[in-house]
Fold this sequence. Notes:
- The chain is an alpha/beta fold.
- The chain contains 12 helices and 15 strands.
- The strands form 3 sheets. A 9-stranded mixed sheet has the order 6-5-2-7-1-8-11-14-15, with helices on both faces.
- Helix 3 packs across helix 4 and helix 6 runs antiparallel to helix 7.
Amino acid sequence: MPVKLVLGLQHGDEGKGRVVDDLVxxxxxxVVRFQGGGNAGHTVYDRQGNKFVTHILPVGVLSANLIxxxxxxxxxxxxxxxxxxxxxxxxxxxxxxxxFCPIIEPTHKIIDRLKYQKKLGTTAKGIGPAYSDFYARxxxxxxxxxxxPEQSLIKIQSKFFSLQEKRAQDGESLESLKxxxxxxxxxxxxxxxMSEILGFYRLSNENILQDYYKKGYNILLEGAxxxxxxxxxxxxxDVTSSAPSVGGALNSTGLSHKQIDEVxxxxxxxxxxxxxxxxPSIINDGQEKILADIGQEFGATTGRPRKCGWxxxxxxxxxxxxxxxxxxxxVKTDVMTHIKNPFFFVHGRKYSLTKINSVSSFDPGFxxxxxQIEIHTGIKQISYTTGPKRGxxxxxx
Length: 397
């Protein structure tokens, strides 16, 4: 099966990165990050327990001899991109970024901080405003930066100064504006070098995935965030600004729905959430602290603590149906062994589970958890993790 798609089915932070990393070791030739921006970090632990974090880069860059692509559904902060390829020491031979990716401008970050960070709990990384400009057909794309760096910079500067002028007219003091001017000036000083680095990694053939598909390459599509954060979900406006869904993957990659052979949905054995919005299965009996501490529930990119709740099977079932999920992978199952009184949430209510003592199909509590997931989602193919490290996934056929 040459194309697999890995999606989060909750509110992000499900562990998609470690699932992708595991498939990279045994199966994938090409890894494609298809939506979102650098606000969506993926954390991976190798077999020795060493920790690695990617932000905008596909998880495949952590392994040698793979082709990695950032496709056009992503927005790219070119400063963070350049820093990340330097930190991970990525070569141009195994990473490309689509020329049609919109860039995140300094102005986008300022707007995000001023307008959306407190309102929606965003990371203030400029993701939403960058997508807003894209849909308004006013984006600067990666190819613009590479092909016409001077002209693109003029447009970027114009946007920045227009915003600062409006802020001053609205009564903000010059002193309050100064930090943003300092950051912008620093960004401009690095602009030429960043545009050259971007040119080095620019994708040379925008139809390359179809070529790889015809050649029989194993293509792994790596989602970020989760179905509950889909811009088109009922949780709007408490969502992200892209589509972490099958539809988002198709728009971004140029592959058709008939070319995707398997959709792997990733869920935690419990649920976490950051930002605003409803959270019906949230835990308030003290066990949420155990999940947060043992599960290390802090954002890979932001470090923000995540709210913890019981596994919400209403939410998972909805995501399974919308995305045509074939296969579920349940992660952080070992964390649940530390919970004395476990529950799951379905039909708007919470139900108790037998205590989980070990991650094994022979353990009554764990077997019950898997059975409830199967009953309420209709998915029979359920894999699961036994620990946080690379290779600690039990794959079912």
